[in-house]
Prior knowledge:
12 helices, globular, Rna Polymerase Sigma Factor, Chain: A
Amino acid sequence: MSPIHYLSEDDLISLLKKRDQRAFNYLYDNYSGALYGVVIRIVLHKNYADEVIQDIFVKVWNHVELFNHEKGRLYTWMINIARNTSIDYIKSKRVQNEQKNQSLPDIVNSAETHLYADMNQMERVDFIGMNNVLGKLKPDLQRLVQMAYYEGYTQQEIADNLQIPLGTVKTRIRAALLQLRGILNEQ
């Protein structure tokens, strides 16, 4: 079988649903780099990122029939899978235990080469200068952005946690993102 060099999104999805291996290879070749960028920002370690990328493509392959083109593009669907899989991975007990059980030389190397990875979430935000930007939002909007984008909560989990309606959470997060866009465009 010869490799596929170009597929439209519709053709790609159709072939994936038929379990065409060439379509899967095309998907991996054309999307793995972009997804890797999303994953590495969350898991912060190459070995973990490689494992998560593999999990993402297995999920896409096994669940491609769940993709709904009316809800968005294939890439957007895969980005959501990548984000959720990455967050689930770093929350997993295995990863947390691995980080606790590192040998002393690994910890020393990690401290030197992974300063950013060792920071807590808010330190990371401040490290890239986002605290100043987030500080321009109202405190309730800051909290929603922090929960959604830095702590990995879903909108439903935020609504349940803060005991506010899901629609209110969605509206406020959208408003916060629009304000952040305006703030960043001014800088």
